[in-house]
Design a protein that fits this description.
Blueprint (H helix, E strand, L loop, with lengths): L2 H7 L5 H13 L2 H8 L3 H15 L4 E4 L2 E4 L1 H29 L3 E7 L1 H6 L1 H11 L3 E7 L2 H9 L5 E5 L9 E14 L12 H4 L3 E4 L5 H12 L5 E5 L3 H9 L5 E4 H4 L7 E5 L6 E7 L7 H15 L4
Parallel strand pairs: 3-4, 3-5, 7-8
Antiparallel strand pairs: 1-2, 5-11, 6-9, 6-10, 6-11
Helix pairs in contact: 2-3, 2-4, 2-5, 3-4
Length: 308
């Protein structure tokens, strides 16, 4: 049987079916996808069946406890997101001729970056582009890169020691790391510190797998030791409060530690070659949407304005 005949026999692939498929993948359930898209469950099931017939392959294995995506579903998800994103981009660019730049940009970034760096930068961007809405998703550096690769985010922010692989990147910020100590700590009498001097004391660390925690652990391992953490928490605010409470020492970016410095906490310069680390923006290869391109230009311009 020739391919032309097979193509005629299979039902057409439509945008609504692709949207519903993406909703199923993102929610993990036909029921939740139907609720999110405000459509009957039976209609979603029918669309899914037609989509599988069009592709000629099962997209999900049905189990009593839910759906399990097949390898074909992973490939379709990546391509469906591209198709839907390109369609949205076309609509936005046509609207620009009469309405100015409009659209949505999704950013994947850690809690620390989202709470410490992005607010002022997004405020100035929004003043220039009031038609652009921005969604920020909490993601560690490695997760941010993966979200961009998977099409789940337009823009990711990551920090050393991680990289973005084959994704294009531009510079975002350079952070200067400092030692953070409880007031009265034995090391507080030093003018500057090395990691080797700190690792014999209890540490307050960030989330496992975070870029800063990974950087500290790798540097300590290279020196033949590992930090002994007493507490692990999420976010620079929580780390600073734990240090202030005397639960251990830590390392934080100076821009995040200085605003939180109190009488119960002291900061010291960190004498390490990795104490100055770079943050970068990553984005998908190829033509970006106009809102995403403008936001990348805005955030990277802030880096160029930093004093050298």
């Amino acid at each position: 049987m020739d391919k032309a005949y097979l193509s005629r026999e299979r039902p057409p692939m439509d945008l609504q079916s692709l949207r519903l498929f993406v909703a199923i993948m993102e929610t993990g359930s036909i029921t939740r996808a139907a609720q999110r898209e405000n459509i009957a469950i039976s209609a979603v099931s029918k669309r899914l069946g037609l989509l599988e017939a069009r592709i000629g392959s099962k997209l999900f294995m049905r189990h009593p406890n839910g759906l399990e995506p097949t390898p074909a579903a992973a490939v379709l998800l990546r391509n469906a997101r591209t198709v839907l994103r390109n369609l949205a981009q076309m609509q936005l660019e046509m609207a620009e001729f009469s309405e100015g730049v409009r659209g949505t940009v999704s950013i994947a970034a850690s809690i620390a970056i989202a709470s410490n760096y992005l607010p002022d930068e997004l405020r100035s961007f929004s003043l220039s582009h009031p038609g652009v809405t921005i969604s920020v998703h909490d993601a560690l550096s490695r997760q941010a890169v993966e979200m961009v690769k998977d099409g789940a985010a337009d823009l990711g922010i990551f920090a050393e020691p991680y990289s973005a692989g084959d994704l294009p990147t531009v510079a975002y910020k350079t952070e200067q790391l400092v030692a953070v100590l409880p007031a009265g700590h034995p090391l507080s009498t030093r003018r500057a510190l090395t990691l080797a001097e700190m690792v014999s004391y209890d540490f307050v660390l960030g989330r496992p797998g975070s870029s800063l925690t990974t950087l500290i652990e790798r540097a300590a391992a290279a020196a033949g030791s590992l930090p002994r953490f007493r507490v692990q928490v999420s976010g620079s605010e929580a780390i600073a409060r734990m240090v202030e409470a005397g639960l251990g020492v830590s390392i934080l970016p100076a821009a995040m530690a200085r605003p939180r410095r109190t009488a119960g906490m002291v900061l010291r310069p960190l004498r390490e070659p990795w104490a100055s680390r770079r943050l970068r923006l990553c984005f998908p290869p190829g033509e970006a949407t106009t809102p995403a391109r403008l936001l990348v230009e805005h955030l990277s311009a802030a880096h160029r304005a930093e004093p050298s």
